[in-house]
Automatic annotation (TrEMBL):
One of its GO terms (molecular function) is mRNA 3'-UTR AU-rich region binding. The keyword Acetylation does not apply. Coiled coil: none annotated. This is Ribosomal RNA-processing protein 42. Gene3D superfamilies: GHMP Kinase, N-terminal domain.
Amino acid sequence: MLHSKAERAYLQQGFDAGLRSDGRGCHDWRPVEVALAQLPQASGSARCCVGGTEVLVSVKAEVRTPTEEAPGCGGIQLAVEVSPCAGLRLQGRGDEELGAELTRALERCLLSQANGAGGCLDLSALCIVAGKSCWVLCVDALVLSADGCVLDALSIAAKAALADTRIPLVEVTQADEDGDAELELDDDPTHAARLDTARVPVLVTVSQVGAALAVDLNAEEGACAGAALEVAVDARGRLCGATMRAHSAPLHPSSLQEMLGLAQRLGPRLLRELDRQIGQSAAAASVAMQE
C-alpha cells in the first residue's frame, strides 16, 4: 500500500506514459500460472497465481434434492474465504466481510439466478432423477495471498477447477417400497463425466488510473485507481456481466464503454492462455493416471 503522494504521482505518471513500474504495459497481465488437481479428495481443484496473488479453488460434487423451481437441474454453490495471512485489507473490512463480497462478485460471474442456477454451465446435465436427486457443485475458494487482481484470479481458478471436475457415473436401480430410486455411484475415476466449461467466463477488472485504463493492478497500483469495473467475458468476447467495484469513483459513460471494450478484447486472450494451461495439466494428469 502506498503512503505518500509522491509515490502515487510517480505511478500515475507511469500509467499516463503507458509504462508501469514493473515494465508492463497498461494492458498486460503479470504471469498467470494455473495448476489442476491440487486436492485429491475433491471432485476437482485448481490453484492460480497471478504475480503475488495466490488462490485455491476446490469443487465437491454432492447428491442432493433438486429445487422445486428447477426439478430437472442440478446447482452450484459458491463460497470464498480469505486467509488471515493473505494481507487483504480494504476499507477497514475484516476477512469475513471481504470473503462475502468476493463470493457475491464470483456469483455474478458464474450464476445467473440467486437460487444457484448457472448461466454458463448446462445444469440439466447434473440431473440424476428429475425431482428426486441431482448433483450440486460446491465451489469453495481460499485466498492464500493477495497482491491485487484477486477477483480475476478467483474466476480463473474457478473455471480451471470446474474443468478439472469429475462427476461419478450413477446407476439408478429399481425403486424401493417408498417409490424412491436407489443410486449406485461408480468410484472409478476413469468412468467419470466431465463438465462442459466452454461457456464459463472469467472476470477482467479494468481500472482507471488517471486518464489511463489498465488491467491486473498490483496492490500498490490499486491504491492509485479511481474506478474499477469488474467485467465477465467469455471466450468469444461476449459480455456476461459487469459491476462497478465498491467505493469506485463515478465514471463518464464514454469511459464506461471504453472499459467494457477493453475487457472484451483482452478477456479472450486470457482465456486462450488458460485453456492452454488446462490442456497441458490435464494431459499430464492423464499420463500419470495410466502409469
